[in-house]
User: Fold this.
Amino acid sequence: MRFYNDFVYIDEAIPGVRWDAKYATWDNFTGAPVTGYAVNRIVGTRQMSSALRDAKRKAEELGYGLLLWDGYRPQRAVDHFLRWAERAENGVTKPRHYPNIDRKSMLSQGYIAAKSGHSRGSAIDLTLYRPDTGEMLQVGGHFDLMDRISHHGADGIAAEEAENREILKTLMEGCGFEPYEREWWHYTLIDEPFPDTYFDFVAI
Assistant:
């Protein structure tokens, strides 16, 4: 591995975990692979991977699996988001990812940041799925939907969807993570090893 010894590929640290690194693909709010994502794999600190291993075990006890979308995010990827947000709207990803705001307001509304907690290596974006069918639990909105409906406690979602969000939240909090109020899928390790360091290496 060509990155710091304190970081690991999550799929190597947690055998059997499922992932889809969205920012290494065309399936994300920018509509293209993002600078800094050289491979479709999830990276994180050893400490986070250890906590996620516990979360995976507890999820399995409940009959679920973990599906990971993003972990460590290099600063150059964050900078890519900021440049993209300043470009003229082309409408390609707006209907799916930010239907009720314009892209230039993503920073002020807290959906992207000039310094992301992901760059410290101990934040994870994830959901739950059913191993028997492979289907994700219904939670009332998809990953990177930049809208009030993605907030914890949001109105306008079904009772079952709210319950599924709470299952994920309770699971993650029980394994040492804290939620981000605007994104039901985003959790950060409370006892993160690099709380003040924003990394910019590319994992290849």
Summary: The beta strands are 7-9, 18-19, 43-45, 65-70, 123-129, 177-180, 183-189. Residues 120 and 140 are 28 Å apart (CA to CA). Residues 46-61 form the longest helix (16 residues). Residues 7-189 form a domain with the Muramoyl-pentapeptide Carboxypeptidase; domain 2 fold (CATH 3.30.1380.10).
